[in-house]
Amino acid sequence: MERSMWFLDQKDMPTQWYNIQADLPEPLPPVLHPATGKPVTSQDLAPLFPMELIKQEVSTERWIDIPQEVQDVYRTWRPTVLYRARRLEKALDTPAKIFYKYEGTSQAGSHKPNTAVAQAYYNKKEGIKRITTETGAGQWGSALAMGCAFFGIECKVYMVRVSYDQKPYRRILMETWGAKCVPSPSPDTKVGRDMLAKWPDCPGSLGLAISEAVEDAVNRDDTHYSLGSVLNHVLLHQTIIGEETRKQMEMADAYPDIIVGCIGGGSNFAGQFLPWIRDKISGKKKDLRIICVEPESCPTVTKGLYAYDYGDVAGFTPLLKMYTLGHNFIPPPIHAGGLRYHGMAPIICHLHRLGFVEAQAVHQTAIFDAGIMFARTEGIISGPEPCHDLKVAIDEALKCKESGEAKTILIAHSGHGHFDLAAYDAYLSGKLVDLAYPEEEVRKAMVELPKVATE
Amino acid sequence: MERSMWFLDQKDMPTQWYNIQADLPEPLPPVLHPATGKPVTSQDLAPLFPMELIKQEVSTERWIDIPQEVQDVYRTWRPTVLYRARRLEKALDTPAKIFYKYEGTSQAGSHKPNTAVAQAYYNKKEGIKRITTETGAGQWGSALAMGCAFFGIECKVYMVRVSYDQKPYRRILMETWGAKCVPSPSPDTKVGRDMLAKWPDCPGSLGLAISEAVEDAVNRDDTHYSLGSVLNHVLLHQTIIGEETRKQMEMADAYPDIIVGCIGGGSNFAGQFLPWIRDKISGKKKDLRIICVEPESCPTVTKGLYAYDYGDVAGFTPLLKMYTLGHNFIPPPIHAGGLRYHGMAPIICHLHRLGFVEAQAVHQTAIFDAGIMFARTEGIISGPEPCHDLKVAIDEALKCKESGEAKTILIAHSGHGHFDLAAYDAYLSGKLVDLAYPEEEVRKAMVELPKVATE
Q1: Across the interface, do B76 and A378 touch by the CB < 8 Å criterion?
Q2: Among the partner residues A87, A378, A381, nearest to B176 by beta-carbon distance
Q3: Are residues B301 and B365 in the same domain?
Q4: Which residue from A7, A169, A175 is facing B9, i.e. has the nearest CB?
Q5: Residue A130 sits in the same domain as residue A87
Q6: Which residues of B touch A425 (CB under 8 A)?
Q7: Which residues of chain B have a CB within 8 Å of the CB of A376?
Q8: Structure pTM?
Q9: What is the CA radius of gyration of chain B?
């Protein structure tokens, strides 16, 4: 019997998140206050986040306990399955062993609930009654809607208007879980009203939606704001993915030579690779390759500048030291909406600077070639984001075919593409456009980096 | 630690299907030839189905080996998980224990691949190069598309035109797996061309799509036809669901008092309950209740006649002894497309006649009440079909609350509703219509039952 799936018993589900900050060879650069340029304090962040999350943001404890209430909710879908893509291996005729850890069986269809549930819990514990957030394509908004439903918290999602109109299914998902979802710009905030007065048909942007969600949160004592990627505490919550995978790879009697995943804000891939990178940092597995994959049209790590920049377009957020294409850069409308971000998780950028992770940019048509091949061999319809992983995994497996090496490749598969089928349709009908690197746009946006970036 | 999921190791996946025909107290009535009224022979069916499936249709062997090649494909998603709905139990404040076996993690999102993969395999083995089928909402067509992709068989799906236009995502799914999907009526068959000549804008019907698929298959030597429910061999392939569940319930130290599931053609629910009903037939668990749930607007078992009838509108198929609302009956357009069928699996009807299963009809608004409650407690967005199960399971759990009994309820949950969110939207926005029992329509259709029905 050839095994293709490894289940981890619920009693063996990890009960602690892994905090890479304990094992970094150099500490992360501090986060700076957008007005003063000085490192932010807990008090600066308190109107937005519960104190437990602010503590996690800067903690250097190696292991952080997952609260029992969060574990109980995790156990409605976790541990997720580790698969071996045997049928893909055969189709490629490669000696490589291809594993993938699949987060698509969460109720929201991705890794996002891992942090949504934790954030809802900590907010609930601090007496918060309501959480606001922004969402683009709706992956994050729907996960937070579910997290809030589970802890009896009101949830308000500002959804970029163009997505709100184009992707009604994600809005319906949020509403099914009880959240309120409005198109952004909305008349519910000053920044929204100002924009609507100037431009009634404004299609919105993630940056504007963030501004609306932040304004809403700071203006109400019962309300906090929540972010679905980039920040340290978000990556921390996602490490349950990699910690589970370590146990499952041991069950499979395997250890990865290459770990591959896509990065938008970076939380899914970091959730997988951070628990492994400690073996590379410690020297136990020096030759482990960790490949971050990003779109050719939004190549933050491969073409961005390592500098302090805002997380949002409006410049409301603290300054993060990261690779950036400039906070004013609006990425082209690729189908992988989750990868359309000008910045990147500071932890990933730091590890890249230190030489522990590498990065590759890939083209939109190539990732759908890979996605279709995966669908026709393994069955799973992948989101456009994890199709990026598949492209590079297949490339590496074909290199193995050439060299005869039986390498072990681990894919950090973030979820299904059930709400992204229009992209597959465009591909199958020959209408998919391959969007190039918008060099001129990036150059312009780079000029507008905040002053502190030059220090 | 409170466990909410039971995984079954792949080495413990059942390797045989269970055939209820070995344990029926009385044999099934024979299937009759539509022209002669005599029992059909293997040769009558050979232009449509491979001989192995024809044999399974009438076999009385208790256990039938699952071919190794089919097992290998099953292991790309099986065993599926048994869940306990602890958060739903708490919300209902019931002493009942509610379990659900969930087929929504298959790549196609439902139980349908269990038979699609098997049927594709047996056809491949017999040298068949191409399979035709019909599909309404697209659940079955997409599962067969995947099954055919896995065995390198061409797949042509005739999709009811109104669904083809309204549900492009299901069509895209089929195309992603490499199938050809055309709206029915189509110019590809005589029956389709005739209809288009008469009525160019004909919205199509399942009955017409079956006729097209059958005509296509009988006219080409390299082509067979495939059906996704009703027939004995289809129910047989689905018994892997119940056989897995038996092992998982044992792991959970539980045995069901009530098993509940929805029935359209009946294959998912039969796949779950047939492996349990042998304990009821043998007297080992006499008080086991098996509740079939159907829509109020298409109440085949609760209001139909037990008679010989055609499987399709055009009267091309053999005659099956079953509960029927008349093969000319067109069920109202409820969202649970998978339950809109005038007939029912003969095995289920037979067991109902013998008193081993009961049936209930429920209203469309009530099933969405249940679906929303399930989504907000357990997270999963259920298809409209399994929302029928949830409604009755919740009713039974509330009866337990009243009586104080800690009964064990097992739900046969057939899959997710990711492509049915328009129905949730209608419900949430107060636009969902509750469709009543169309008594007059059924009365008319009943008059047109084939003559043999009166014997």
Answers
A1: yes
A2: A381
A3: yes
A4: A7
A5: no
A6: 168, 172, 175
A7: 149, 176-178
A8: 0.97
A9: 21
Residues B77-102: tens digit of each pLDDT? 999 999 999 999 999 999 999 999 99
What number of other Cβ atoms are within 10 A of residue B58's Cβ?
16
Name the range with the highest mean pLDDT among A161-175, A209-223, B248-262: B248-262
Render B42-82 in DSSP notation, one character per residue.
HHHHTTTS-HHHHHHHH---SEEEPPHHHHHHHTTT-SPPE
pLDDT in the model for residue B332: 85
Say yes or no: A104 and A119 in one domain: no
How many residue pairs from chains A and B have C-beta atoms closer than 8 A?
Answer: 137
Are residues A102 and A127 part of one domain?
A: no
Q: Shortest CB distance from A72 goes to which of B2, B175, B419?
A: B2
A162 with A243, same domain: the answer is: no
Q: Which of B76, B86, B377 sits opposite A87 (nearest CB)?
A: B76
* A35-48 burial: b if 16+ Cβ within 10 Å, else e: eeeeebeeebbeeb
Helices (H), B360-438: 364-377, 384-403, 421-428
Closest residue in B to A175 (Cα) is: B428
User: Is residue A69 domain-resident?
Assistant: no
How far apart are the C-alpha atoms of A39 and A30, rounded to whole Å? Answer: 6
B192 domain residue, yes or no: yes
Using the 3D structure, point to which of B225, B257, B285 is the last residue of a domain. B225
Q: Looking at CA atoms only, how far is residue B258 from chain A in angstroms?
A: 22
Residue in A75, A379, A424 closest to B146 by CB: A379
For chain B, which residues score pLDDT lower than 70? 453-455
Q: Which pLDDT score is estimated for A337?
A: 84
Residues B100, B186, single domain; the answer is no
In chain B, which residues have their Cβ closer than 8 Å to the Cβ of A8? 7
Q: Distance, in angstroms, between B305 CA and closest chain A CA?
A: 38
Is residue B231 in a domain? no
Q: Give DSSP secondary structure letters for A30-64.
A: PPB-TTT-SBP-HHHHTTTS-HHHHHHHH---SEE
User: For position B70, what pLDDT does the model report?
Assistant: 98
User: Are A327 and A311 in contact, with CB atoms under 8 Å apart?
Assistant: yes
Judged by CB atoms closer than 8 Å, whether chains meet at A2 and B380 is answered as no
Classify B384 as helix, strand or coil.
helix
Which residues make Cβ contacts (< 8 Å) with residue A27, sequence separation at least 6? A21, A60
* Distance separating alpha carbons of residues A326 and A446, to the nearest angstrom: 5
> How far is the alpha carbon of B78 from chain A, nearest alpha carbon, in Å?
8
- Per the CB < 8 A criterion, the answer to whether A327 and A343 are in contact is yes
On whether both B97 and B117 belong to a single domain, the answer is: no
User: Which residues of chain A neighbour B8 with C-beta distances below 8 Å?
Assistant: 7
Q: Residue A125 to residues A116, A121, B136: CA-CA distances in angstroms?
A: 14, 6, 47
Beta carbons of A5 and B1 less than 8 Å apart: no
Strand order in the sheet with B154-160: B180-184, B154-160, B130-135, B223-225
Residue B122 domain flag:
yes
The most distant pair of C-alpha atoms in chain A lies apart, rounded to whole Å, by: 66
User: The domain containing residue A284 runs over which residues?
Assistant: 5-12+78-108+238-454
Q: Which of B2, B5, B112 to mutate to test the interface with A (most CBs of A within 10 A)?
A: B5
Asked if residue A279 lies in contact with residue A356, where contact means CB atoms within 8 angstroms, the answer is: no
End-to-end CA distance of chain A: 60
| Structure token pair of residue A262 | 């896509």
Q: Residue B124: give its domain's CATH number.
A: 3.40.50.1100
Count of structural domains, chain A: 2
Identify whether residues A395 and A260 lie together within a single domain: yes
